Amino acid sequence: MHIFKTHSERVLKKVKPIVKEILRLDSAMQQMSDEELKGQTEKFRQWIRDGKPVAKILPEAFAVVREASFRTLGMKQYPVQLLSGLMLYNGCISEQKTGEGKTLVCAAPAYLSALSGKPVHVVTVNDYLAKRDADEIGQIHRFLGLTVGCILGEMSQEERRAAYACDITYATNHELGFDYLRDNMAMDESETVMRGLGYAIIDEADSVLIDEARTPLIISGQGGKSTKMYEICDVLAGQLERGTQTEFSATKIFDADEMKETGDYAVDEKEKNIVLTANGIRKVEQFFHIDDLSDPKNLTIHHHVILALRAKELMKRDKDYMVKDGAVQIVDEFTGRVMPDRRYSDGLHQAIEAKEGVQVMEENRTYATITFQNFFNKYEKKSGMTGTAMTEKKEFRDIYGMDVIAIPTNRPVIRVDHEDAVYKTMDEKYRAIIHKIKEVHAKGQPVLVGTTDIKTSETLSAMLKKEGLKHEVLNAKNHELEAEIIAQAGKHGAVTLATNMAGRGTDIKLDDEARAAGGLYVIGTQRHESRRIDNQLSGRSGRQGDPGESKFYISLEDRLMGIFAGKNMMDLFNSMDIEKDEEIGSPLLSKAITNAQKKIESLNFASREQLLKYDTVNCRQREELYEMRNIFLKNSSVEDVLLYYADGFIADTLNGDNHTDMHKICDVLGVRPNADFLADGHKKNTKDLEQELKHLVREHYKKVEVEAGGEEAMQRLVRRTVLRAMNVNWMRHLEAMDKLKEGIGLIAYAQTDPLLEYQKRGAVLFEETQRQIREDVLREALNSRMIRIAC
Prior knowledge:
The protein is of the alpha/beta class. Helix content is 53%, strand content 12%.
């Protein structure tokens, strides 16, 4: 008997009375005509417009949606789905097991939130799910008088604006993020599409907020730099030898007593880092005919060498990426889906292209960027749904400010999760998997085999073909068949190989024969770095009380074991007298696997947390710039802001000196004072001189306004000048911040906190960027010659 209740149990206990109230209203809702039910929407809207508390109408609103769900889709939310919906409305992460109907859950919180008039975005992980959910769940909202939009990748600007104008909009996390960035690069308000960031309901929240947190959204264009360095460094990487040292720390890198160097470079698989040894540094210096690789002027060479070694050692073909039609295409680590329009940043993609011998594309220049962490934290309110979140509850709380609440299942889970099967070699493991597939298939049970990479799925597929066993393969090479293949995976006798969580978001439904045979049998071909991904895989079986089984197969040669199990434990098992194809059983091994996963989860969290700290510096700068940008974009009168820029420039430039910068001030402002003014400037005190200059600028502005063709024409000219200057200088600033971050790690060895130093130096860079923006704007907007050219 449990004496202490979990946090989830305590929270759910508080909201269960609300669920009872919603259910109590069911009979009253059933008695309403369609028109009466639809009429509740305007009644609720008026209540909110009158400033009355939304909590008073919450049970009734949920009850209205529940009845509308039945009249449109033939389904009513179960009590546990209502619990989940209440958690979403209150800004939590709702953890619901696979098959518990998360899609239907969001209907009520989305409806109630949209009644305030603020935009509601339901976020999915791909276009297929966005369209499916907008079409299906959208029926409920349309029935109740709300408008529903959907953002798809191929949409025009006009179509996007119309979709965002709707009460509720379905979209992927990528489309939302890129539209936000594009809106903040627009040269005219008519070019923007979004109407704000109100409330986000994030489906598969762990995928969006955890798995993709380290991948920034980047809008870029051709940079024009030579690609030859990538090819040269790829040749060099082939000549450098990897050392046997596999673990190192920053404090030991320069301590010969602590770290016995071997080879030319060391690879840290845990941290995914590469460090050149002293011998490797000498080889690089000889190769490029330079004296000192650590000299700041050689930073670019060092950067490209490390990129080439990362491509060589850490980026695996058909796992991290695939080569298709002569191009390197990223494979999503967590879904197995190919991402043809995405490229690794900071030159890594070019390094991989050089490694694979395909055309090395020009390095792009970043125009705008944001991480999903900072993007979703910009919403006024956010919530999320997923089948697996508890293992990351600390991260959801610390980074996103959201509690994770575990929702009970509608029916008890009866799936049997077997102990892991462990084998000495990978080949033995594969043979055991094929044997299990044949055994289960013979009973008529459907089998879903989850692999972590394309290579494994193709290896097992070849082995099944030799056995004459019909099966389907779902990976990044045929992901367009995803929904169709997954829909068939629950039929009796079906065998499906799926890379990671391909098919996520689509239920695997059993037919009667499959259910009678024991349900879906899930096989994991190795443990993933994250326990959450393993839970997602096993969770595909046993939905809504269905029978099912799951079992993971592991070998001592698996990457996770090699990195984290520890040398002593590996030596122990290697010394055991184990027969060929014999399954190893050991509580120590199971514990080692769990500990290994916890270690890497902790490392990944630390990495994402560190990324957020650095990105927050950029985020504050970005918000300040975007705020000023919006003033120019949306304000009908820009004269005051432009003159504010001029006043600030005058004050900053004078800076106590009455004459040295007089010519520069006049040149930037476009004013042409008489010779006496220039000659006598040094005789006046700064305050008087400042006031005279401000007066000259205002007179000059009116003159330029006439030359531009009047007030309205001048407004348009100034607006475009400001926005263009902001775009160009922000792009340069992002490049400067990237270079700063790249070199900031070396500061750690000078006993200085790198993050603190990044903040300080970043602030100086941003101040310089703002100054340059002001100067560029004034030089162009107040220059008579530029006005004549523009007109």
